[in-house]
Structure formats: structure tokens, C-alpha cells
Amino acid sequence: MSDGAGMPIRVGHTANAGRGVFAVRDIDLGELIHTADPVVAHPSLASLHKACYFCLKGIRRSVSYTESAVAASATEGSPTFCSSTCEESAQVFYATEQQVDWSEFHEYCSNYGVRFPLIAKRLACMVISSGTSPNSLDILSHVNLSNGIPADWITERKLLYKALRSKAAGSLNLSFLTDDWYVGVLARLHINAFRIERVDQDDSEDILAAAAASILGESILGSAVYVLPSMYNHDCDPNVDILWPDNASANLVARRSIKSGRKSRKRLSYTSFTPTVVVQMSFRGCDLMPVLSKSVWCIF
Questions:
Q1: DSSP per-residue string spanning the chain
Q2: Which of 14, 87, 124, 219 could form a disulfide with 81 if both were Cys (CB 3.0 to 4.6 A apart)?
Q3: Is the pLDDT assigned to residue 57 strictly greater than 60?
Q4: Which residues contact 12 (CB under 8 A, 6 or more apart)?
Q5: Are 252 and 282 in contact (CB under 8 A)?
Q6: 291, 284, 33, 42: which is closest to 142 by C-alpha?
Q7: Does residue 284 have a pLDDT over 80?
Q8: Cα 65 from Cα 81, distance rounded (Å)
Q9: Domains and CATH numbers, the chain
Q10: How far from 108 is each of 55, 83, 206, 207, 262, CA to CA, in Å?
Q11: Does residue 9 or residue 294 have the better pLDDT?
């Protein structure tokens, strides 16, 4: 299909796994294959004051970058940014988000422990602000809905529409926000959204402590969606690690030497604690689900 400019890989078709990522030259062990910024990301509701509202970098309220950020972090429901750059970049969705009362929508997400509606919310705000196309995720694979559309997806769409149609946001153009659009987005998020977690330095020396924090949800910063990393296939014998050394920007690194023409396979795991962030991809019905839901993936 295509080569990444300057990258040692290309995206193509595989014989039995749909799209895949192939090496166009030999790749050395430990080589940085490429980086990837998310198409869309959203912090968990519990991390609004622990993660940058834009890049998901783990932060402490005591080290906010400006006086205005300190004031914002002290205000319930106000987001925190790690830098002026992130605050400026966030206007692609935040200019719309701040017009809306999200209390009912967030209460639903909190009560039911769901995170994909939060990503859909942010994507919708980006579309409204002309920051992206309504079809920006269409290139990604999606779950099979042959057994019907989950009723809760329709409920979530109605809640999202209701929030955006509130008095304060009454002038927003919501013509794209149909059941079909929301279902299409959720169907892609369920197999392409990464859960981003922070592993504190102390926990990084103790796998059991880190795993416990993950299971309890204490280390979750948020979720993110990418295009090129989602083209990789998952596998029990991975040759690529995907790492988040600082924020939601991902590094894909060869975990062993890869010969030219080999399909690349990526893996998410606790293989390295040097970065402060590890990530989990959410799979439904995947028969490769590992112990603690922490590994799977591949370049061919």
C-alpha cells in the first residue's frame, strides 16, 4: 500500500491477516522504527489533574507551568496542561468542550466504567471545531457488528448529543453526530484504542506492585488512538515493542533484528520500565489475550 517517508517499513496486504506492516530494509535490535502521535486522546476522569489534558503526560499540580494553570487545576472540573504548547494545541477541541456542561455525560461514563465515549466526545468536539474530519477514523479496522449494535452505544450517542445541544452550545453544528457515526467510531475504538498508564519510578522496580496498580486502575492516565500503529498485527511472537517514554506520543522499537520483507509484529508488555508510561490495547474476543491483559501484537 504505502511506505512511510524515511521509515524502514511499509503498509501492505498479508495473505491471511488483512493489512500488515513490512520491513523494507533490515532493522536492527533496539532501533527506533518510528514515532506516532495520536489522532485523538482523552484522559481518564480520575486523571484530569494527574495528566495533561492534551498529551496525557503525567504531571503534578504543584508543577503546573503558569499561574493560570495553577488556578485552573484548583478549580473542580478544569483541565490541567503541562505546557503552553499543549494548552494552545488543545484549542482544536477545548474551545468547543468548554461551552458544554458534561456533568451528566461524565457521570454516565464514571458509573459504567466506560472510556470509549470520552474519546468519541473529544473526536466530536474536534470535528465541530474543524480540527478533523468526521471520517478521520474510517481507515481503521472495526469490530464485527453482525449480532447487532449494543444498546448502550445508542444511549451514549444520545447523551453526547444532548450535552452538545445544551443551551450554552446551542449554535454548534451537529449534523454529523448520527447513530451511524457514533457506532462507526465506537466499533473502531474497541480494537484500536490504547489505554495509557503511568508506572511510577518506585513501582517500576516491582512488577507485582505495577501489575496491582494496573488492575486497580490506579495508574491509568487515559486512552489514545493512532493510525500507523494500528496497522500492525498482533501475535504471540512479537518483534516490536511499543513504548510511551513521556506522554501519548508512541515509540515503536525493534525488540529483535528484523530482516527486510518480514512482517512486523508489535507487543505491549512490561518488557521495559525505563519509560514512565506503558500502554494496553483493548481487544474484544481476541484469543491471544495474555496474562493481566498486557501483551499482544506484531510487524510481519
A1: -EEPTT-SEEEEE-SSSSEEEEESS-B-TT-EEEEE--SEEEE-GGGTTTB-TTT--B--GGG-SSHHHHHHHTSTT----SSHHHHHHTHHHHHHHTTS--HHHHHHHHHHT--HHHHHHHHHHHHHTTSS-TTTTTTS-----TT---HHHHHHHHHHHHHHTSGGGTT---TT--HHHHHHHHHHHHHHEEEEEE--TTGGG-HHHHHHHHHTTTTEEEEEE-SGGGGSBP-SS--EEEEBSSSS-EEEEESS-B-TTPEEEEE-SSS--SSSEEEEE--SS-TT--GGG----EE-
A2: 87
A3: yes
A4: 1, 19, 20, 21, 22
A5: no
A6: 284
A7: no
A8: 8
A9: 2-37+226-299 (2.170.270.10), 65-192 (no CATH)
A10: 24, 30, 34, 33, 45
A11: 9
Over 90: is that where the pLDDT of 106 sits?
yes
Cell numbers of 278, please? 506503558
Residue-level length of the chain: 300
Q: What is the pLDDT of residues 183-239, one digit of tens each?
A: 999 999 999 999 998 765 554 455 555 555 554 455 689 999 999 999 988 777 889
Question: Mean pLDDT throughout 129-157?
Answer: 96
- Sole residue written with cell 518488557: 271
Cα gap 252→240, rounded to integer Å = 7
What average pLDDT is seen over the chain?
80
* pLDDT above 70 as % of the chain: 73
- Per the listing, cell 488543545 goes with 90
The three grid cell numbers given for residue 194, joined into one nine-digit string: 490504547
